[in-house]
Specification:
The structure holds 2 protein chains of 2 kinds. By secondary structure, chain A is of the alpha+beta class. Chain A folds into 4 domains: 165 residues, no CATH class; 215 residues, no CATH class; 130 residues; 101 residues. Helices cover 65% and strands 11% of the residues of chain A. Chain A has 22 helices and 9 strands. In chain A, the strands form 2 sheets. In chain A, strands 2-3-4-5-6 form a 5-stranded antiparallel sheet, with no helix packed on it. A 4-stranded antiparallel sheet of chain A has the order 1-9-8-7. In chain A, a hairpin with a 4-residue loop joins strand 7 and strand 8. The radius of gyration of chain A is 27 Å and the shape is globular. The two termini of chain A are 50 Å apart. In chain B, helix 2 packs antiparallel against helix 3. The longest helix of chain B is centred in the last third of the chain and has 28 residues. Chain B folds into 2 domains: 99 residues, Cytochrome C biogenesis protein (Helicase, Ruva Protein, domain 3); 38 residues. Chain B is mostly helical. Classes of the chains: A alpha+beta, B mainly alpha. At the A-B interface, helix 14, helix 15, strand 1, strand 6 and strand 8 of A face helix 1 and helix 5 of B.
Chain lengths: 657, 138
């Protein structure tokens, strides 16, 4: 009975979504305040009904209601409660419900934190988000009902995929979805601006904190995914260029272009149309990601062909949203007046290059991701496009981006003098090259050229960014006071760029200088590897709630002192009979030591893999810094002052344009 | 019922294949160069029975088998080209994570640089045009 309530609640949510989109958008067009005033209550009620539905699914998992097919397929009585909870989004139907829940969370956040927006604009934003919601609720109700019953009721469930039974996977999907779906807010703002026909720069200012927030979540979400893959898959890899990863990386690339372009639109009234297109593109890529991951098309085009309903539905949604937006854009965009002019050597130019390089990067990832599908669909054979391809084509695109980043932060708006700029940059460039080359030559024996390139790039980014702070305060008497009045978004930019540099260092060094060995070991064996001694102390049987495991206990010794004791397990999850490796990791600022237990070779010996991964933590540290930078920008006073002024603005908005 | 049946079949397949190839035996090289080639090769060859993993990243019996085969080929002085040719002959281009450049893949390999050239040219034309239209107002 309770499951049917959850289903019914979704139907009610759909009804609310319909009210939320039709009346406010009509009201904004007709100037009807009553219609517009329906936006907030409808959005909040929709959130309520979606939450009830989500809560019921959570409850069904917690009480092991195996009469629900989705629960029976993804849970088990032996599964610890926390994984029964996260199993809610362990497969298709539940993660779709999470998608919709997060969409409605973003929508009500907009209703609560956008008092300063004019009523007609807010109504359109919420209306457009309601349209997205309608699409996904219909998708769910027609193709992917999580509350479907099963008969006969199985005695026990088929268990959650053991890969997903991990703390990282409890938080990774919700955070990632917050980012993905968060771009629907940017999309809502862009479409609202197009609907209003008034493409001035205010919409860009309003949309900036929301877009930044979505980007922050996406950044953290991707980093969490990478970290999870690193410790859970047992191979020490942190990025595979897997289609599922690419699906989240593409919106991130365009999202990054978007936050830069929004800043330019907000500050200099330029790239207005371009920014709108980027906002539409970021959202379209979120939908495309959902399609790629959910349609089964990734494993094979034929898998898609056997059950095309879901895929076709999302593809249709994608076509409607993107097609509709572009038609609207085609009508409205030509009337936009461009703002400030700029010369070739100006910050605007470099911001534009930022946009198009990120766009090219995204198109490259897209090409590599869908190329095998196209080839297969055209019956030209089967093809794999993997890491060697992406690494080969991605780095040459990132190189100019990094050079332009350094130039961009120091170039003035409108126009700059080349000789003056050169004078500033010459010393920074020489310093970066000198330090980078020295570090490369002193610390690394092999792959020196690539290591030096990466370190010089990171130094170039950080020195130019820090120098831009110095430029701001060098002529001030009281430097500390001068630093205090610099805006938070400037510091945000600084921190995020340095985060990018940290990330580059991590990626470069760990890719070029990680070493690993694969060894046969029995109790008592000592292996010398990478200046450490690994002493296998014990191998013992361990039982978990739903798995059996063998645990290896290894002392890591350097210069005769114990560094750490690593524990790595080889588990077999009993229900699905699936082997899993739990890596033993000693994390460090400059290196990780990583051990993965392989397989038994005979009665005594096991195969063991040991990895030494220098600077691998810097990859995620860089991502955290980027997110902190984004957060600083969100907290900029520019946005807060406007909240204080909200009353005046709302009064002014009584007269609708 | 179907699920139960499927999981039994799945379990049997796993158990039987698992039993017949308990072969994660480490390989040892005396030649440093051969060792490097081995590790690079298994990174770039796809494990055909896995979702999306290289030979280096998989414990599937087939991956272990192929790793050993590649080990033997390297030991018997086969070149990288000979090894990949052998694998492609047996499994098709699908086995290579680095797709070969041919009629079907030129767009894949040159596409990104095509995008780059088009994008940068368009951007420069746009900038020139808009800065010529009006003078810079300060």
């Amino acid at each position: 009975m309770i499951a049917e309530l959850g289903h019914f609640s979704l139907v009610l949510a759909l009804a609310m979504a319909i009210i939320q989109s039709t009346f406010p958008i009509m009201g904004a067009a007709m100037g009807n305040l009553t219609y517009m005033s329906l936006a907030r209550p409808a959005a909040r009620l929709q959130f309520l009904f979606v939450s009830i539905s989500f809560g019921i699914l959570v409850y069904s998992f917690l009480i092991n209601d195996f009469s629900i097919s989705y629960v029976a397929n993804n849970s088990n009585t032996l599964l610890p409660w926390i994984y029964r909870f996260s199993a809610v989004w362990g497969a298709h139907e539940g993660s779709l419900l999470l998608w919709i829940l997060i969409l409605s969370i973003w929508t009500i956040a907009v209703t609560y934190f956008s008092h300063r927006l004019p009523e007609y604009f807010l109504s359109r934003v919420i209306g457009v988000m309601g349209l997205v919601s309608i699409g996904f609720l219909l998708f769910m109700l027609f193709t992917s009902n999580p509350f479907e019953r099963i008969f006969p009721i199985p005695l026990d469930g088929a268990d959650l995929n053991p890969l997903l039974q991990d703390p990282g996977l409890i938080i990774h999907p919700p955070i990632l979805y917050m980012g993905y779906v968060g771009f629907s807010v940017a999309f809502g703002f862009a479409i609202a601006a197009l609907l209003g026909g008034n493409l001035d720069t205010t919409w860009a200012r309003w949309s900036r904190p929301w877009t930044l927030l979505a980007w922050i979540f996406l950044t953290i979400g991707i980093a969490l995914g990478s970290w999870w893959a690193y410790y859970e898959l047992g191979w020490g890899g942190w990025w595979f260029w897997d289609p599922v990863e690419n699906a989240s990386f593409m919106p991130w690339l365009i999202g990054t272009a978007l936050i830069h372009s929004l800043a330019a639109t907000d500050k200099r009234e330029i790239f207005k149309n371009w920014t709108i297109l980027l906002a539409i593109c970021a959202f379209a890529l979120s939908l495309l990601g959902t399609f790629l991951v959910r349609s089964g098309v990734i494993t094979s085009v034929h898998a898609f062909a056997t059950d095309p309903t879901r895929g076709i539905f999302i593809l249709a949604l994608l076509a409607i949203f993107v097609g509709g937006s572009l038609v609207l854009y085609a009508f409205r965009a030509p009337s936009t007046k461009s703002g400030g002019k700029f010369k070739l050597l100006s910050r605007e130019t470099f911001l534009l290059f930022n946009s198009i390089l990120f766009l090219v990067a995204m198109l490259t990832v897209l090409l590599g991701t869908i190329y095998p599908l196209i080839i297969e669909a055209l019956n030209l054979g089967k093809l794999s496009v993997g890491a060697p391809y992406f690494n080969a084509v991605f780095v040459p695109i990132m190189a100019p981006l990094i050079i332009f980043l350094g130039l961009g932060v120091l170039t003035k708006w409108k126009q700059d003098d080349f000789s003056l700029l050169l004078k500033q940059l010459r010393n920074l460039l020489i310093a970066s090259l000198f330090i980078g080359i020295s570090i490369g030559l002193i610390f690394f024996e092999n792959n020196q050229l690539k290591s030096i390139a990466g370190i010089v790039a990171a130094l170039w980014i950080s020195t130019t960014s820090l120098y831009s702070l110095f430029v701001k305060i060098k002529n001030k008497k009281n430097k500390l006071a001068a630093m205090r009045i610099i805006s938070r978004s400037f510091y945000g930019m600084l921190v995020a760029h340095i985060g990018f540099a940290v990330c580059i260092v991590g990626i470069t060094i760990t890719s070029q200088h990680s070493v690993d060995i694969h060894q046969r070991m029995k109790i008592g064996d000592v292996i010398e590897f990478s200046n450490y001694q690994f002493h296998l102390k014990d191998l013992k049987a361990v039982s978990g709630p739903n798995y059996e495991a063998t645990e290896a206990i290894v002392d890591v010794i350097k210069n005769e002192s114990l560094i750490t004791t690593l524990r790595s397990q080889k588990r077999t999850y009993t229900v699905r009979n699936m082997p899993m490796t739990e890596a033993g990791i000693d994390a460090g600022f400059t290196r990780d030591i990583y051990m993965a237990l392989g397989e038994p070779l005979d009665n005594e010996s096991w195969s063991v893999r040991l990895y030494h991964k220098p600077f691998v933590r810097w990859i995620w540290l860089g991502a955290i810094l980027m997110a902190i930078g984004g957060l600083l920008a969100v907290l900029d006073k520019r946005y807060r002052l406007r909240i204080l002024k909200k009353k005046i603005i709302t009064i002014n908005n009584e007269a609708i344009p | 019922m179907k699920i139960l049946y499927q999981s039994i079949v799945f379990a049997l397949v796993i158990l039987t294949t698992h039993k017949s190839y308990p072969n994660d035996e480490p390989v040892y090289f005396t030649d440093k160069n051969q060792e490097q080639r081995y590790y690079l090769l298994i990174e770039e060859i796809r494990c055909l029975v896995c979702q999306n993993q290289s030979l280096a990243d998989s414990n599937a019996p087939l991956a272990q088998d192929l790793r050993n085969e590649i080990f033997k080929m390297i030991k018997s002085e086969k070149s990288n080209n000979q090894i990949t040719e052998f694998l492609v002959e047996r499994y098709g281009d699908f086995v290579l994570y680095r797709p070969p450049l041919n009629d079907n893949t030129w767009l894949l390999w040159f596409g990104p640089f095509l995008f780059l050239i088009i994008a940068i040219t368009t951007a420069i034309i746009f900038i020139k045009k808009q800065s010529q239209n009006n003078t810079i107002d300060n």
